[in-house]
Design brief:
Order of helices and strands: EHHHEEEEHEHEE
CATH superfamily: Gcn5-related N-acetyltransferase (GNAT)
Shape: globular
Number of strands: 8
CATH class: Alpha Beta
CATH topology: Aminopeptidase
Radius of gyration: 15 Å
Structural class: alpha+beta
Length: about 160
């Protein structure tokens, strides 16, 4: 496994990773209704998410992709200019392989190089557990609604 920078042709695969992660990993901690509003519904959800990710990645943020030996994406993370981590998702089969840790290492090195002193994220239940292991602290729980469905995540941060 190796880490490389995002390229626009990654967007469809990242959409697939996002949807699979939300549906398979997110469903351990969230209801079917919450998973549906978070990860999209139907067979075209991954394509729609991939298109949105492609637009999002063009806004100047940095993005890294963990790829397997065939250069196929298995996980990804992004970093906005203010230290915000908006996305960290791994394909279900990549969980426990170290991919997310390698991505976070690459992100932290770039953040330090850019002079950032703090990282912050809004993390799901599963991501909260990962970020806690990586030295992040929970600032507070965030309860909100998406399309009328109550859901929550955690505002977390870490000083570099």
């Amino acid at each position: 496994m190796r880490i490389r920078s995002y390229v626009p042709s990654d967007a469809p695969a990242l959409g697939e990773i996002f949807v699979a992660s939300v549906r398979e990993i997110g469903s351990r901690d969230y209801s079917p209704e919450q998973v549906a509003v978070w990860g999209g519904e139907g067979q075209h959800a991954a394509r729609a998410v991939g298109e949105r990710l492609g637009v999002k990645m063009a806004d100047g943020r940095r993005c890294w992709v963990a790829v397997d030996d065939a250069d196929a994406p298995v996980a990804f993370v992004d970093l906005e200019a203010d230290g915000h981590i908006d996305l960290l998702y791994a394909a279900p089969e990549a969980v426990g392989t170290g991919a997310a840790g390698l991505l976070l290492d690459a992100l932290e090195a770039a953040a330090r190089e850019a002079g950032m002193t703090r990282l912050y994220v809004e993390a799901s239940e599963a991501a909260r557990r990962f970020f806690l292991k990586c030295g992040f602290a929970v600032d507070h729980r965030r309860d909100f609604e998406v399309d009328g469905v109550p859901i929550h995540n955690y505002a977390m941060s870490r000083t570099l």
